[in-house]
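Tokenise the fold.
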Amino acid sequence: MQIRTVTGDYIRDLLASGAREDGRDMLDYRRITIKKGAVPNAEGSADVNFGNTRVLVGVKLGVGEPMPDKPNEGNLITSAELLPLASESFEAGPPSPEAIELGRVIDRGIRSSGMIDTKALFIEEGKVWDLFIDVYILNYDGNLFDAGTLAASTALSTARMPKLEGEEVIREGNLGKLKVNNIVTSCTFAKIAENIVLDPDGNEEAFMDARVTMANDEKVIRAMQKGLSGSFAPKELENLLDITFDKSKELRKHIESAKE
């Protein structure tokens, strides 16, 4: 759990000198580790660390009913829970606005990229697969968006597809993999005074003026989310788009090299 001991002036002065608290360059990620298969009973799962930020994602499939406007498609349901053990600012109870936003940002990148073909989750008339992506924040130290998206993509890419035999869902035995069409990652940038940093930690997030998250697959930007009242200049955004494509290659390598 992060306990903040610095001031905004300290962070701003440090960045103005071209330095960050942990010694990173402005556009460097913290140390990233991924453990696949962290939840044995889930169809797919991943435990991801970005520095001291830790996110656990589990993927589960169950039989449900299609949405009225999409009768031939399964349902993709993403939710996020900010556990009180992760930060002194997180409270138990109904989902907070921050938890809702986190779930929606992760969902939007996955959904808009077509990473999961919801039509392939159709079973028969009135019956489809519900695909649940459950995001749990185990420790907060900034940048939940990128850690959450990386954990969700890892969990989906390793998930097994259960079988339906009659009314029974078979989750063991000779199961195929859940089909995924691509890998989605996101890059989150924070603007603090006139400086822009990638992968802001908890202290940097506390004093940022603006935030933007860009999600992409191997080809195009699929979703963007702007936060806070500050702004990015058009030229700044163009530059960040280029950086996102470059850094996403690095993030995908982490998924490829991760072990169970």
Remarks:
- The longest strand covers residues 127-139.
